[in-house]
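User: These chains co-purify. Model them together.
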Amino acid sequence: MDRILRVDMAALAARVEPLPQEYRLLGGRALTSRIVADEVDPRCDPLGPKNKLVLAPGLLSGTPLSSSSRISAGAKSPLTGGIKESNGGGQTGARLAQLGYRAVVIEGAPSGNGWWLMVVEPNGARFEPADDLLGLGTFETARRLFDRFGKKAALMVLGPAGEQMMNIAGICNTDVEGRPSRLCARGGLGAVMGSKRLKAIVMPDCGWKPPVPVDESLWKIASKAYIKELRTQPATSVRYPQFGTAATLELVNKLGGLPIRNFRYGQDPRTDAISGFRMREIILKRGGRPTHSCMTGCAIQCSNVYTDEEGNEIASSMEFETNGLLGANLEVFDFDAIARFTRECNDLGVDTIETGGAIGVAMEAGLIPWGDVDGIFRLFREIRSGTVLGKLLGQGAGTTGKVLGVRRVPVVKNQTLSAYDPRAIKGNGVTYVTTPMGGDHTAGNTIALQIDHLDPAGKVAISRQIQLQTTLLDVLGFCSFARGVLNATPQTFADLFNARMGSNLTPDDMMAYALDVIRREVRFNVAAGQPAYERLPEWMREEPLPPHNAVFDVPEEEYSRIWDL
Amino acid sequence: MDRILRVDMAALAARVEPLPQEYRLLGGRALTSRIVADEVDPRCDPLGPKNKLVLAPGLLSGTPLSSSSRISAGAKSPLTGGIKESNGGGQTGARLAQLGYRAVVIEGAPSGNGWWLMVVEPNGARFEPADDLLGLGTFETARRLFDRFGKKAALMVLGPAGEQMMNIAGICNTDVEGRPSRLCARGGLGAVMGSKRLKAIVMPDCGWKPPVPVDESLWKIASKAYIKELRTQPATSVRYPQFGTAATLELVNKLGGLPIRNFRYGQDPRTDAISGFRMREIILKRGGRPTHSCMTGCAIQCSNVYTDEEGNEIASSMEFETNGLLGANLEVFDFDAIARFTRECNDLGVDTIETGGAIGVAMEAGLIPWGDVDGIFRLFREIRSGTVLGKLLGQGAGTTGKVLGVRRVPVVKNQTLSAYDPRAIKGNGVTYVTTPMGGDHTAGNTIALQIDHLDPAGKVAISRQIQLQTTLLDVLGFCSFARGVLNATPQTFADLFNARMGSNLTPDDMMAYALDVIRREVRFNVAAGQPAYERLPEWMREEPLPPHNAVFDVPEEEYSRIWDL
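Assistant: Joint model of the two components:
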């Protein structure tokens, strides 16, 4: 797995390179960010040929260890203008690792107008025209590719949004059953892939070839310890398997931090209709799957399959962020509607958070009424067909707000905040303004902590700790639900890392490693002409959020020193 | 004139304050930028209540000296995100000075939804509802206000674009005959005025009360020397009086730097139809006015009145930048069409450069064909009525390009470049990337110099010199055509300054003063989270511009040190 596949889209050629010695211990986010920082001009046009799209499985991806096979995509983001890493579940992380690649670096752009698909092979890659797939949704695209390359292929595909190089476009990874519904969603990395005119990346079946740990005996001990802890913690053993991420909605609503009506309210009794509990009830009644794994071998199985009353699948999976941004935030308190939104977003190949943010802002501007399900579908059609309005929404909430003249736009670094209003969930607010990634909870979500989320005190230290831990998860390929295990047993994580890589890092060394990753990312952003830390939008520091009437009040003097730059 | 009028729009109240001692020698751009830098949070929302709109006549405005009564408007720009000063001709600069104000500082925003007009009086200001004027073009707005406040009032008004807080919106100053056609055009300052819900600022007649110079005998000597030089130099004595700015088109076309078809070509024989020579011919034949002054007492009279074949006025004035950006750049080689565009832009209250840039990008995206005059009028109607497409264009070329997926967008700091392609006119390219003002030739236009504009050598020093001189003009209230006089006789300028202010500055002191102004502006931008210097768009450094097949090649290492920060 110590090889890099370097792809020149201008020449439609790929070559295998040895992993540079200084990248020896890097994987996932550490490697995507390092290659972007080392090779991409921070001030380049993110949709021009000088940007590079880097894909990297986590260091443990492809091993049989539960919940560790995520794939990172990295580039300069057209949405935030800064460096971005976005990781996704599904089957591609494990496959890329098993094909023997630590990273795929996609450079340049084809000179003609044609579109391509890239077939990744154990010793290179080949290219085939993809013009016949243009305009297709991700599901039909995936169906045709499975027909050609076999059901066991793992795919990364773009939908119509990625083809149109929209900022809301993600890269869609296929799950265990082949749904292209596991997105590297945030930051418009689908647009970067679109700028390379790659409709799909196909990773054909190569048999089951898990990477071999350097220290197999330590690996056995550490992986046992990991699984034991995963099966002991209530979140990963009971809550996520039963309710998935959807149960987070009750919690955030209770804390008064759920986005309602474009982040105008933090709590609403109508959310009972879209709670995790209610979702499970509906799924069980209709014969869907309340628990389901997105990648092979996951012990948590937080995913689900949501069906209609006849038992036909609508969407997999229903997630808290989608229920928040495309549900509560738009005043749609109806799971069937949200499930159809989810399906549509997966087929368009878009980030449900950014899309929900943009539609919320469009509602604020009066384009369609709050809660107007048919209106939302009309907007999806505008996006799909690329009308001016569709393209505008496709730029995300920030640009939509600027153009439509809306001041209440919930973005940081031009990116829609996740479904935790930072006025009520202050640790996440600190994450939004200090992560190099923009308004993105996946960089460091404090919600699982038993703390007073309203109190600004101590939130900088808490966000810092969680951001560092999350970075390690993103390096190893772990899903974020493994953070509880990392927090409880950091030595286990160091053991897994060392066993796999033949290294000798202490838990403290690993946190220093994570800090180095983040600092490099921040330096890239500064070189791109961005500030080293951000602010929440002015109105979030002034407009009280009911029911707690909270504003964001973590002092800038405090959070601006978070990385000791 | 040593007083500041401070306006609180939240309270609809104004009070007169003494000029702080440290602002004693500041006027025009120096004062708007100083107040913005001292009082406005660089990271505030430019369209929120924390931004301030500062108006300041030049230090010589209101004196009888020719071409010295311009008015500066300053704020944090919603277009560039940085500090902005934009100055305009017409009658308001002299009036504000004669009303006794060095500056007007407009803060806050009204709490309700009403719109207002502010009547500036010698000892304060009063406010009247302006809701009856909403939606009106600037001409009808001005007509109604002259009816109410007398023909001799001087006005600053917004059109529909400013009301909609569009980035293309300027602030329209009335000229000698009352046309609202003298814009503080660039940088979206009309949007900032709109965010204060001020439809118009009325400065009623106060008699002719020119500011009295401190040293009247020196003033007499220096003003004589100034006028003599103005009447000697060929540009100000022959070329501008005869052809106005329109004659610049032949020169720039000859140099291969005129924007044709969204900056795709630098030269086109069809531009013969829109040359300054041709314009004068048409105007003379139809009985318009080939020469005309925008402000009382101007000896240059570069303005003009363009009529139709029946002798009815279409627009005043036809300017090079408009002929470039809304003519050549859109492949409209027809003066009658451009005159009607000019009229429409003045009535909408928009910057013709930014509007031309946005329409050029929309044409590049295929929205309407090149040269489609009817299509352009259709787009103007979209802007006026605020459709989604109209609002998009109203954000300027940068956002239009992002949303429509166009890579060839001619902006720096999100602002459309003036009608000098920086690949052929390299000194202006240096100005675009180094001025804190964005892609704006008014910060330092090198075109009048007899140099090899294609050669990158020496252009940093040249742009620096011109930017410093231009800053001084912007401080004193001079029109940029006085730069030739300043360059030839810097002592005369120092004498005028010293006579007026009672100071004792040498020409070198004045250049140091200008450098201080620019450095403060750059520091504001850096504090706003911007880089200290910009880059041209990637494609302008790579795509050769016919006929010289030039790219922009002034080294970044060289121009990044221009202000020795």
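The mean pLDDT of chain A is 97.
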